[in-house]
Amino acid sequence: MPDLFIGLMSGTSFDGIDAALVSFDQQHVQLLDTCLHPMPEHIKHALLHLSEHKLHDLNKVCQLDVELGLLFAQAVNHLLDKNKLKASDIKAIGSHGQTLRHFPHQPFPYTLQIGDPHVIAVNTGIIVVADFRRHDIALGGQGAPLAPLFHQAFMQSEIENRAIVNIGGFANVTVLSKNKDIKGFDTGPGNVLIDAWALQHIHKPYDENGLWARQGKIHADLLTALLSDPYFNKQPPKSTGRDDFNLNCLNQYLEKFQAMPAVDVQATLTELTAKSIMNAIKQYASNTDAIYICGGGAANEYLMERLQNNAGTVLVHTTGKLNIDPHWLEAMLMAWLAKQRLENHKLNLKDITGSTAPHLVGTVYLT
Ligand SMILES: Nc1ncnc2c1ncn2[C@@H]1O[C@H](COP(=O)(O)OP(=O)(O)O)[C@@H](O)[C@H]1O
Ligand SMILES: [Mg+2]
To answer: Which pLDDT tens digit goes with each residue over 173-212?
Structure first.
């Protein structure tokens, strides 16, 4: 019987909790079942408020820490019921937690994920591995991205130089060379600005299939202004989050473009995501043979077309082509990280996050 793990991922998009039941057998990973557990509107609003408005309400944060822990436990229990499994059938849960802040800069670099792992462990009866980023930051790293080692484990090729791009709220790229070299960093915004603009103007949480953006015109001057953001010129290792890219920052760039129709802004924001990803690949992985996309952005058909347009002759696929479901990869990553931690495998993130020493990634929380 292969080992069973559950991965929980709740990303910066606040679109719900991804729960994945995963089995590992020697070198193979198999996705057995999934559930997208809904995030109640009041929690989503509170998280948006805390992220965008820099509200310093400590009581609210403490309360949400527990509320989210309970919600994560519910997602796990739902997945267990659905699969007629008992808590004792699962080795461990890997829970990312909900990021509220990510600021890996001097003099006091920090990152904060909430959703109390103790609450998850007690309410599921399963060991939890969580807090995957802070040790890395304490060791001088960015604490992000974490996905590249998982990409390397299951998607590296001996015949093709690959770039794997995850497009969640933010986008990160993993460069997997045939010669086994690996690089990885956040390229900048993924869906975060596209979602925020869609919510403000068409009152939808995201621009479904990019249908709205497709109706607009990409505005070259606005695109140039947005691409002048200092994040894009930083050298890796680098990581980003809502602290760097949010509606407030976008509105500052838009001050000079007041008359622009909202639909053109949406087209331009979609191009910003596509272009900043491709610029990063061209700059740091110019010998890439093929690009594989995962994360919610893979479902945005217009964004996928713009990525292909910017990639020229290099083909852009989803990770589905490599038999890894693009929408569940990050939850699978959490399950894999839990397995690495339980087996006491130290991970070397030096070429990705810049942390100075291999370390045990994640902390174990008992039931
Ligand atoms: N059909 C779709 N059309 C366009 N965008 C989509 C679609 N499905 C998902 N998305 C985008 O993907 C996002 C969720 O992606 P996800 O990988 O879960 O990100 P995160 O890790 O930040 O939660 C949504 O907020 C939305 O922007
Ligand atoms: Mg999500």
So the answer is: 999 999 989 999 999 999 999 999 999 999 999 999 999 9
Phi/psi at 326 (nearest 5 deg)? -60, -25
Predicted pLDDT at 55? 64
Tell me the C-alpha to C-alpha distance, in Å, between residue 250 and each of 47, 173, 215: 19, 23, 20
The pLDDT of residue 48 is 87
Q: How far apart are CA 232 and CA 223, in angstroms?
A: 13
Report the domain count for the chain: 2
Phi, psi of 220 (to 5 degrees): -60, -40
The residue from 302, 322, 342 where one domain ends is 322
> Residue 124: CB within 6 Å of ligand 1?
no
Residue 182 CA to residue 77 CA, distance in Å, equals 36
Question: How does DSSP classify residue 359?
Answer: B
Residues 205 and 294 in one domain: yes
Low-confidence ranges of the chain (pLDDT < 70): 53-56
Domain range for 262: 147-322
Task: Tell me what pLDDT residue 2 has.
Answer: 85
Report the DSSP pairing between strands 170-176 and 182-189: antiparallel
Work out the angle between the directed axes of helices 192-202 and 247-254 (0-180°, nearest 10).
80
Share of the chain above pLDDT 90, in %: 94
Ligand 1 pocket check for 297: Cβ under 6 Å: yes
Is the CB of 191 inside a 6 Å radius of any atom of ligand 1?
A: yes
From the CA of 210, give the closest atom in ligand 1.
4
CA contacts within 13 A on the Cβ side of 237: 22
Classify strands 290-294 and 315-318 as parallel, antiparallel or unpaired: parallel
Is the CB of 195 inside a 6 Å radius of any atom of ligand 1?
A: yes
Secondary structure class of 252 (helix, strand, coil): helix
